[in-house]
Every structure is written in structure tokens, then in C-alpha cells.
Amino acid sequence: MKVTKHKKARKYMSFYMNNFGFREPLLVLIDGTFCHAAYKARLQIEEQLKRYFQCELKLIVTACIITETENIGGPLVAVCQLLKKFLVHKCGHEKHPIPGSACIRALTKTCNYIVATQDRDLQDKIRSQAGIPLFYLHNNLVPTLVQPSEASVKAAASKTQAKVQVREVDEKTLSNLKKKQGLLVDTDQKPKRRKKMKNPNPLSCKKSKKQKSQNRNPPFSDGVKDKVIEKKKRKRVKLPKHVIEHLKSNKTSELIS
Ligand SMILES: [Zn+2]
After folding, report:
1. Environment of ion ligand 1 (residues, CB < 5 A)
2. Which residues form the domain of 164?
3. Can you state the angle between helices 45-53 and 2-20, rounded to 10 degrees?
4. Is the full-model pTM beyond 0.85?
5. For 3-14, how does the pLDDT look when each residue is reduced to its tens digit (9 = 90+)?
């Protein structure tokens, strides 16, 4: 189970890295609700997250998140002390703190953060916004990176489409520039040469063969063929001299008579 979880985490994070520019060390923005759940489950947050993501990461809180938890007080005093151990990011609301969820949403617009929260409302808002990984403790216990939301998937698809279009435009402008500078002349000429080489050669070869064969053929036309055969016959029949003389004498006698 653990292996498949790590695989999923890696797969989801590579999606965010490829499409939304997330880089190591990953920045995880933790709110009071997440810290409270981790405290109750006695989770070592930093260790658990490093083991889960299998890479370098930084746990970050803001002044707004700390003051919100402080204001609740009571059972959350220990949680507040835990929060203060993490890196406190300057959010710009130090003089006039705002609710933790609003602060987190404002920060996610400026930088790439993984948001770790158990707050359902904040989770829904994060999921409706593209390109923000959501992390929570499933059943307040199991560290879980949520699958990229529809908004994120759609945004990634439109980004890749835009990239393809930009590439096409870049290639066209590049080829135009090359043509202007005379760099593309060679590439244009090559196919022409090929055409020239291709067209005449097979045809001329065929024609020459035909012509030769046509020239050679006439000796084998009907009339001449017979002559050749006759010649062969004449050569084969070798009559002795006395027979020939006999035949000649017969012919002359016939003529005389
Ligand atoms: Zn703030």
C-alpha cells in the first residue's frame, strides 16, 4: 500500500512540476486545522511529509495562520507552539491579520505552494483553482496528496495546446528568417535535384531498352525469319558431288526436252 501511495504522490507531483513549474524543495503551506489533526494523530509532520514526497521540502506558515490559532486558544495552544516551529513566511498581513484560509488563498496566487489543510471549505476552493496541490490527512490519520482537480487538468491541457501553437509559430518564423538570410536555399534545392534525378533515369532506361529491342526485332519478323530458317536448312543438307551433278544433268535434260 505504501509503495502505491508513493507512486501516486510522485505521479501527481510530476504533473504539477511539468505543467505548473513546481520545483524542489517543495513548499508546503500548513494551516491550523492540518497541524491540529497531525498533533492529535501524534504525527511527526516534517518526517512524515519528507517520507511521503521522497524529496526535499519546506514547511511554511504565516503570521495570519498563527494569530488565528492563537485567538482560538484553549486546546490549540500546543498546536500554536507547533506552528511556530515552522518557517514563518511574510504574507504582508502582519499589521492587519486576515483569516488563515484567505491568507493561504492569497499566497497561492503569488507562488507555488502545496496546501495542507483539513478545512473542507478551503479544500473545495483550492480544488476549484488550477495548479495547487492539496494535501490532507485522510480520516485525520493517513497523509494523502489529492489527485489533480479537473480545473488543474483542464488548465494543463490548454497550456500544452498553447505551447504546441507557439512552437508552430516559432518554426514558421524561423523558416522565414532562414529563407530571408539564404540559409534555407540548400534545403529547398535538394528536393528539386532529387526530382530531376528521379524522373529521367527510369524512363530513359526503359525507352532505350525498348528502342534497342525494337531495332533488334525486325530480323525476327515473319519474312526474314523464313529466310534464316531456309539458310539453316541449306547448310544442313550436304549432298555428295555426284548426286548434284546427276540432278543438274536431269534438270538440263528436262529443259532440253
Ligand atoms: Zn497573511
Report:
1. 62, 64, 91, 93, 103
2. 150-195
3. 80
4. no
5. 677 888 999 999
